[in-house]
Amino acid sequence: MSHASPEEVVRDFCANFGPGYEQMVATGKRLVHEDVHWVAPTQEKPITSLDGFLADLARAKELGVHGFAFEIPFLAVDGDVVLMQRKDKTLDKDGNVLAEL
């Protein structure tokens, strides 16, 4: 069991979530808890399981998204809850930027 703080886990996740699909899946399996509650503006509803998270990655890959790059200008932690403002870049299979959010 990890003794990393919630902030350390989030920073680890963002640093290692890509640049390719395999890294996204490996990082997700390593750091995303089975009862995750993931909310993002691009999702219709929250993701509430690791399987749902991995399925969302597979859907993104089908749409041509093979990786992400994150910049975190602001991050706040309250207990086990981490809120962040981040700038996301979605990447294609060659690492080219598809979109920025």
Distance between the termini: 33 Å
> Helix share of residues?
25-40%
The average pLDDT score comes to 89
Please state how the strands of the largest beta sheet are arranged side by side.
Answer: 1-2-3
Largest sheet geometry? 3 strands, antiparallel
Weakly predicted, low-confidence segments: none
Strand count = 3
Number of helices: 3
Strand composition percent = 25-35%
Order of helices and strands: HHHEEE
Approximate shape: globular
Radius of gyration (CA) equals 13 Å
Structural class: alpha+beta
Outline of the structure:
The chain has 101 residues and is of the alpha+beta class. The chain has helices at 6-16, 21-31, 50-62, and strands at residues 67-78, 81-91, 97-100. It is 35% helix and 27% strand.
Fill in the keyword field for this structure.
101 residues, alpha+beta, three-stranded antiparallel beta sheet, 3 helices, globular
Helix-strand layout with pairing:
Layout: H1 6-16, H2 21-31, H3 50-62, E1 67-78, E2 81-91, E3 97-100
Antiparallel strand pairs: 1-2, 2-3
